[in-house]
UniProtKB/TrEMBL annotation:
Name listed for the protein in its UniProt record: Uncharacterized protein
Natural source organism: Zymoseptoria tritici (strain CBS 115943 / IPO323)
Superkingdom: Eukaryota
């Protein structure tokens, strides 16, 4: 069983796990059994404000049918790791899988790209998927915490 979203975020912020390990933990929720009551539960405001990536992945998990552990390891995890490591060729490859086209998953990828200040990935996702928006709540929150580099400012100005 994976850590819950709040436990994973706390471990990340306290330096007990890396960002990659954090993604492993929260993405495992795609394959874990979900209880109907979890969909009704809200995260506390502290976590909602401070962990926009976790929020967006949680929203994707709650709106996506449970996936097999193999699909998680083969398709979803590499997709998110491509964004984390700003690997556009890898992202393009993994976006070809139909599961990756689910809009809540795309939104969470956009939020992750904003969180790690990946201007190249942000630009690609916004250009390839024009229905995505930087105004979405979690993405907007992530952008408020991100580094404002020249490439990031270009993306913000042009999208």
């Amino acid at each position: 069983m994976s850590l819950c979203f709040d436990q994973a975020y706390t471990a990340l912020r306290n330096g007990r796990i890396s960002y990659e390990q954090y993604l492993h933990e929260v993405l495992a929720n795609f394959a874990d059994t979900r209880h109907a009551s979890h969909a009704l539960l809200k995260r506390s405001w502290e976590f909602s404000i401070n962990d926009p990536v976790g929020n967006s992945i949680r929203e994707a998990v709650l709106s996506t049918p449970t996936v097999s552990h193999q699909d998680l390891q083969t398709h979803l995890l590499p997709l998110y790791l491509s964004v984390l490591h700003s690997s556009l060729p890898s992202l393009r490859h993994h976006l070809s899988h139909p599961m990756a086209q689910h809009k809540p998953i795309l939104r969470s990828l956009l939020t992750l790209a904003a969180s790690v200040s990946s201007a190249q990935i942000l630009h690609y996702l916004l250009s390839a998927h024009p229905t995505l928006s930087l105004q979405e709540t979690n993405t907007s929150l992530a952008l408020s915490y991100t580094r404002r580099t020249a490439p990031m400012l270009d993306v913000l100005y042009n999208h």
